Amino acid sequence: GGGLVLGLLLTPERKALAQKWIWLGGALAALIFLPNVIWNVRHNWPFLELMRNIRESGRDVALSPLAYIGHQLFLIGPIHFLIWMAGTAYLLFSSKGKPFRALGWAFVATLAFFIVSKGKDYYAAPVFPLVLAAGAVAIESFSERAGWHWLRATVVVLLLVTTAAFLPIGLPVLSPPHLARYLDLLPVGVPVSEHSHAAAKFPHHFAWQFGWEELVAATARVYHNLPPEERAKAAILGNNFAQAGAIDLLGPKYGLPKAIGVHQSYWLWGPRNYTGEVMLVLGDEPEDLQRWCRSVEVGADLHPEYARPQESWSVLVCRGMRGNLKDAWPMLKKWD
User: Fold this and answer.
1) Per-residue model confidence as pLDDT tens digits over 52-74
2) How many C-alpha atoms does 100 have within 13 Å on its Cβ side?
3) C-alpha distances in angstroms, 293 versus 39, 226, 266?
4) Of 283, 302, 286, 285, which Cα lies nearest the Cα of 294?
5) Which strands, in side-by-side order, build the sheet including 278-282?
6) What is the mean pLDDT of the chain?
7) What is the band of 219 on the pLDDT scale with cuts at 50, 70, 90?
8) Angle subtended by helix axes 150-170 and 128-146, to nearest 10
9) Following DSSP, what letter does each residue of 165-226 receive, concatenated?
10) Are residues 104 and 92 in contact, defined by beta-carbon separation less than 8 angstroms?
């Protein structure tokens, strides 16, 4: 939105700001966004807290401007890269593209914002249709003027070939063993946006899909093996929103109660009525729990194949929490 406003201000299309419709559209957009702002205000701006904590922890890979552009080339594909370069030039410098120049500046401003703010490489993806569409128009117009009608068919063939070649990186079209072999054959590694992703066998959007069924099944075995009096008051606590989310999504078929969690929004929802007397803790280390629990035992160990190395989980049984879980809850907050 900010990129579009800047694009209007930098071009003759700023005359649109004199019309009521753009302001009514802006007001509607603000109204749609308002619940998000109200939620942030009521919870002391957790989004800003999250961004600050991520930067302080050094979790994300900080890319130089050239590296950020290089990641776009990899994410969008080499032929698409040429199309969006042509589209950017068409919007900013072509006489035919002049009526749409505001879109060119919107693209440049948005991409520059994410480069300067060290955003993740895929944050810029939604703005690329602007320049891909313009690039298609530019190539069509050039091929018509030059009489190079073969150029359009060539571009389409190249798009199909390169898309097919890169498709396994983005969509699960290969089985895990075949995907592993495919990635080994690539001349370059798949870019990562977080340092923890670098050690994973698969790109993070695939690696994150493994192990959840095993985790929930193992948690269910430990939970149902508890003595009835302990099971009645046992909380299942996720150290990460993904672990707690897996229990909530897959747990009902195993007869598990809803999880509680200390990570991000799960922490906001609190410990409910659990006291911490008995807890099944997911994604933590026994030594870290000993400061909170009088006894800690490993109920199950999991090492799911193809998952991230960080997803080698333990299901820990914590008994006799030192103090009450509700009192300790503020100190358990993880907002990163």
Assistant:
1) 998 888 888 888 999 999 888 88
2) 18
3) 34, 17, 21
4) 286
5) 260-261, 234-238, 278-282, 314-321, 293-301
6) 91
7) very high
8) 150
9) HHHHHHS--S-HHHHHHHHHH-SSPPP-SBGGGGG-SS-HHHHTTSSHHHHHHHHHHHHHHS
10) yes
